[in-house]
TrEMBL record:
Pfam families: Phasin. This is Polyhydroxyalkanoate synthesis regulator phasin. It comes from hot springs metagenome. PANTHER family: SLR0058 PROTEIN.
């Protein structure tokens, strides 16, 4: 199971819990134990807390992945693009030095 799967399952479970909380609060309103405004307020508060928790979890996972990749010393997409540009520039310079016209294809 990948980190993505764990996060996905956690989020889906969170959505299931959120739906159950709404149903529970709706039942309390129907039974008259809460007013509609109190129920709406509780749903809003719980939703805001759930959203914040989801955001915090996402941020934590992102930071963890970034730190792990840094420790593994894996080049980023930007690193690879920079190296590709340098290789292209060097190829052009070599072709000029060898007298090969630009746009000519040679074995690389």
């Amino acid at each position: 199971m990948t980190i993505f799967d764990v996060v996905r399952n956690a989020l889906l479970a969170g959505f299931g819990v959120q739906e159950k909380v709404r149903e529970f609060i709706d039942d309390l309103v129907k039974k008259g134990e809460l007013s509609e405004s109190q129920g709406a307020k509780l749903v809003k508060e719980w939703t805001e807390k759930a959203d914040k928790s989801t955001s915090d979890l996402s941020k934590s996972i992102s930071e963890l992945v970034t730190k792990t990749l840094e420790k593994m010393n894996i080049p980023t997409k930007d690193d690879i693009e920079t190296l590709n540009k340098k290789i292209q520039n060097l190829s052009v310079r070599i072709k000029k030095l060898e007298g090969i016209p630009e746009g000519s294809e040679t074995e690389e």
